[in-house]
């Protein structure tokens, strides 16, 4: 079997790079038009972390990618290829992958099979869109396997960079992190990639949440009327089941924390509508945060650790097993193939 990866801007995103590794691991011949002579950059410890091995990739021209399946990296748009790709979709599966922070505001043409990060069942868009976790590269798995993860301390890492559109992180700095510091050591260092690797190798928990609160702007008549006049449909959702919703919630930080056997701290998946191909279980694979209860979580978590000093260690181990089983490159590729087969 052969799969073609079309990269309109020639530089593959993290997830598409992982899918290339995954299809190769499943025995597929992998073809791409992307720049591969320097390897494929994947996001891992810090950004970027690794240069993936790319010797198995076949570099071809754009017109030589029409194999059994065509995967298109649209994280930076279609370029001027939308019409051509729509025509190709009439005869074979065309998978489009969009992992941008803005993917929650993106409608996918019905002819494509679309996969996105940040999928939220409470705010859906038009098209055949399916969730895809940011996941792991082979490189970060190899890196994690090379670390000693057996002597961790009950320390929590909180080292987000200051970025825009991260109201969830800002809110939890006020209502969660300050409380955690009353019961746990919280490491706030903005470290180098090498230092960060050592942090994750030695601590038990990581603040791995993110996201932006988005109300139902389209439900306000004066805003809707103005946007319709301008032809702007960014906030027009097919379905919006809550207001506000949390968008842009997924993060490579969550997956790298898990693979390093750290207990990820994240908003409650079920309550806030987060969907991955396989969701983690709260208090088994991650520490869930309910915003209505956030100020009480530090005391609750401290009690759990007092009752069982290995409590965070156990969640970290569970998280590592969960992420390796479900978000390795081959697991992600199998998932994409299963969705294609189901349609």
Summarize the topology:
Layout: E1 2-6, H1 14-25, E2 29-32, E3 40-42, E4 50-52, E5 58-59, E6 69-73, H2 82-88, E7 94-98, E8 113-116, E9 123-124, E10 129-131, H3 138-145, E11 153-157, H4 167-180, E12 185-187, H5 193-202, E13 203-207, E14 212-214, H6 221-230, E15 239-240, E16 245-247, H7 252-259, E17 263-267, H8 269-272, E18 287-289, H9 297-307, H10 311-326, H11 329-342
Protein model, in words:
This protein is α/β, with parallel strands linked by helices and 343 residues long. It has 2 domains: 2-135 and 328-342, Rossmann fold (3-Layer(aba) Sandwich), CATH 3.40.50; 140-211 and 248-326, Glycogen Phosphorylase B (Rossmann fold, 3-Layer(aba) Sandwich), CATH 3.40.50.2000. It has helices at 14-25, 82-88, 138-145, 167-180, 193-202, 221-230, 252-259, 269-272, 297-307, 311-326, 329-342, and strands at residues 2-6, 29-32, 40-42, 50-52, 58-59, 69-73, 94-98, 113-116, 123-124, 129-131, 153-157, 185-187, 203-207, 212-214, 239-240, 245-247, 263-267, 287-289. The longest helix is centred in the C-terminal third of the chain and has 16 residues, at 311-326. The two termini are 19 Å apart.
């Amino acid at each position: 079997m052969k799969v073609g990866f079309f990269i309109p801007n020639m530089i593959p995103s993290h997830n598409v790079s992982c899918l290339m590794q995954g299809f190769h691991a499943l025995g597929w011949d992998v073809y791409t038009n992307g720049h591969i002579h320097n390897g494929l950059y994947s996001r891992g410890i810090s950004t970027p972390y690794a240069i993936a091995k790319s010797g198995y990739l076949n570099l071809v021209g754009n017109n030589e990618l029409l194999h059994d399946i065509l995967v298109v990296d649209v994280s930076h748009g279609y370029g001027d290829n939308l019409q051509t790709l729509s025509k190709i979709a009439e005869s074979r599966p065309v998978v489009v992958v969009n992992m941008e922070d803005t993917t929650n505001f993106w409608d996918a043409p019905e002819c494509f099979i679309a996969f996105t990060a940040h999928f939220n069942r409470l705010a859906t868009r038009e098209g055949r869109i399916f969730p895809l976790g940011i996941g792991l590269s082979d490189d970060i798995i190899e890196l994690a396997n090379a670390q000693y993860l057996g002597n961790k301390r009950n320390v929590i890492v909180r080292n987000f960079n200051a970025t825009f559109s991260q109201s969830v992180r800002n809110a939890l700095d006020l209502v969660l992190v300050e409380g955690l510091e009353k019961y746990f050591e919280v490491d706030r260092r903005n470290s180098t990639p090498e230092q960060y690797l050592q942090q994750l190798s030695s601590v038990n928990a990581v603040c791995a949440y993110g996201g932006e609160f988005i109300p139902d702007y389209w439900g306000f008549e004066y805003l809707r009327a103005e946007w319709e006049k301008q032809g702007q449909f960014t906030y027009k959702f097919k379905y919006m089941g809550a207001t506000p919703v949390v968008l842009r919630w997924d993060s490579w930080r969550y997956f790298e924390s898990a693979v390093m056997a750290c207990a990820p701290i994240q908003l409650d998946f079920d309550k806030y509508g987060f969907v991955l191909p396989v969701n983690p279980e709260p208090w088994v694979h991650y520490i869930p945060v309910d915003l209505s209860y956030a100020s009480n979580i530090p005391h609750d978590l401290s009690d759990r650790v007092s009752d069982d000093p290995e409590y965070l260690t156990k969640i970290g181990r569970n998280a590592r097993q969960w992420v390796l089983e479900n978000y390795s490159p081959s697991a992600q590729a199998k998932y994409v193939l299963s969705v294609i087969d189901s349609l």
